[in-house]
Specification:
Elements (H helix, E strand, L loop, with lengths): L3 E6 L5 E6 L4 H4 L5 E3 H23 L4 H15 L6 E8 L1
Antiparallel strand pairs: 1-2, 1-4, 3-4
Helix pairs in contact: 2-3
Length: about 90
């Protein structure tokens, strides 16, 4: 299963390197684009849900590392103002 990382910059200026167990992230985010925190979180949840299903279909179980990555995104988003912007800086394959 092709996995990847992508980097984001949160409204507070902190950067985060995020893991994805699937390239599906590329369908939900564009490098150089800004997303309101609420939208970034919704897109992340949808993309990680699809990624989990792809892993489950291939291997018979979900990806714990992918679930942990989403939990980290959710935790960071909870510390940000809902109207703040998240910058997707780059993809790393």
């Amino acid at each position: 299963m092709p996995e990847m990382h992508f980097e984001v910059r949160w409204p507070d200026g902190k950067t985060m390197r995020c893991y994805s167990p699937s390239l599906i992230i590329k369908d939900y985010f564009q490098p150089g684009s800004h997303y309101p925190v609420v939208e970034f979180l919704a897109r992340s949840r949808e993309a990680y849900g699809i990624a989990q299903e792809r892993v489950r279909a291939r291997w018979g179980w979900g990806c714990g590392h992918g679930q942990h990555a989403l939990e980290q995104i959710e935790a960071q988003a909870s510390r940000c103002a809902a109207d703040g912007l998240v910058l997707v800086e780059c993809f790393q394959e």
